[in-house]
Give the backbone structure.
Amino acid sequence: MQAVATTSVMPTGAALGAEIRGVDLARDLDGETFRRIEDAFNRHGVIFFRGQDITVGQQIAFARRFGEVEINVNTQACLPGHPEVLLVSNIRENGRYIGLADAGTTWHTDMSAYACPPRCSILYAKEVPSAADGTILGDTIFASAAAAHDALAPETRKRLAGRRSTHSYLAKMMARKEAVGLTREVTPEHLAKTPPVAHPVFRTHPVTGRQCIYVTEGECTGIEGMADAEALPLIAELHRHLIDPRFQYRHRWRVGDVLMWDNCSCQHLAVRDYGEGQRRLMHRVTVNGSVPV
Ligand code: SIN
């Protein structure tokens, strides 16, 4: 059955993010409804649908409307029988985490240490932690890399225009280990698949053409053609500017939320303010993207 096009797009009022209402993702989306959703996604960087009740197959089918679905290299953290679905969770079974427990716990954009990072990631909230008084925990904070770029001083833009910075998966994992601890093993096979790669410091959005800051402190180990003594403080300064609260939207999860983010126009942070006994379970499906330019 097809969804009827009664979709409404409600911007969050922050620098990014919008809620999409009137869509049931358990149904096939007609062309016009999908067009409106994709347009809202490109425009707002983060979109979310509340109160969804979808199967694994329906989440994958929705993701496929946006492109080819990625199979995560962390195969031990994927839903058994569904390598398209990465489990982001602190739940342990038989003495081990069923998914990635440290996913997103430092600021980043997904898999930017890949030559061809993903277009978007789609999270479906299955279990959301809360405190004893009912306060919801485990929010995700998003920052608009496009709004942050627009707010840069003209001389900074000029200084870095055309420059490329090196992204290192190993550096990202080491920085995360130092900041919050790691619960995954960084395997030699994974490292072999992710040699350091250079991407533009300012990336052009493949659909909107907006310029987006594409560096992360910790993960970016330098800027090509620039001495580290100059490059590393610049990377840190740019990244701190990007995650300034004025460019942020903070999502408070509810079970049944389906939320997706654009890995070019924003970065995100999963707030780890809950303990082992407070279960959090997200099903993540990731859609392949294009080489940053
Ligand atoms: C992620 O970065 O994939 C996880 C984000 C979250 O769990 O909130």
Q: What stands out?
A: The chain is about 25% helix and 25% strand. The first strand starts at residue 8 and ends at 11.
